[in-house]
Amino acid sequence: MPIPVSAALTAVIQQCNLSRIHPGLLFNRYLSWPKEWDFGGEEKARCWEQIAKAISQVSSEVYDFIDQRQQKLRDLIAAIYPGGTTLNLTLNTRAPLVVGLGGNSPLENAITLHPLWGIPYLPASGLKGVMRHYLEENYSDDFCNNQAKELIDNFFGSPIGTGRLILLDAFPAHPLCFDQHIRVDILNNHYPGYYLGEGADLEAPGDYQDPRPVYFLSLGLKVQFKLYFYLKPLSLSNAKSLPGELILAEFYCNPDKFCKYALEEMAMGAKTNVGYGWVEVQLMET
């Protein structure tokens, strides 16, 4: 878990405008710890609100710079692997989205913030994992075929080599407004004695137990992310060896269709079983 700064430095920081401090530093280092080193529920909610407001203060110039950087990085990759396919997509949240909830955090729950810019983002590794999981869930019969496994490894990569798909991190396309795009969310544990108790302290679930609120940050509806990725060219020898009888081959040859299906039909992030993490995917106009 990140170690907070000393009490003396914290006192100096608290005199500053916390909404103008780097959100990642505020989250990991600059929180005002109580003397007993234990946050209460309402204190955690106040800290989460500080972090959300700091995220909302990140200027639009930062988002524009990030987008320009991602486009240049995509073009650089295309120059290294000429002849491939460039795809630009937008992801729009249709439900609340939580990324990185289980990470290390002084507030029990966490959120994935970029280490340089301090804004929420969707790591490329997670997006690629969603796409691969979509194939494994929906085309399990094909996975029994060795050709299909080779096809997937060639597309996504494997421990012994890289794949055709080069995916960049997805960043918000616009500033995140507090309480609209970024907000303090809550989960109420109605049976803390049952879920948190151990041994002799374990209690049967009952309505007599007091709910214990758990706070975290979530992204709201209609948050737009820009996703850039590149497909290395498919060599003629690989194209001839595609197993045409496999449904997977269709997605291998039509990556835009595959990415849209995969990201829309598989929720991403945390708490997907209760409706979080659904997005709508569109081809970005260039």
Summarize the structure.
With 286 residues, the chain is α+β, with helices and mostly antiparallel strands. The chain has eleven helices and nine strands.
List the helices and strands and how they pair.
Blueprint (H helix, E strand, L loop, with lengths): L6 H7 L9 H6 L12 H16 L3 H21 L4 E9 L30 H15 L1 H4 L2 H11 E2 L2 E2 L2 E3 L3 E2 L9 E8 L2 H4 L16 E8 L4 E8 L4 H5 L7 H6 L1 H11 L13 E5 L3
Antiparallel strand pairs: 1-8, 1-9, 2-3, 4-8, 5-8, 6-7
Description:
The protein is of the alpha+beta class and 286 residues long. Helix content is 37%, strand content 16%. It contains 11 helices and 9 strands. The strands form 3 sheets. Strands 1, 4, 5, 8 and 9 form a 5-stranded antiparallel β-sheet that branches. A two-stranded antiparallel ribbon has the order 2-3. The longest helix has 21 residues, at 60-80. The radius of gyration is 22 Å and the shape is globular. The model has no long low-confidence stretch (mean pLDDT 80).
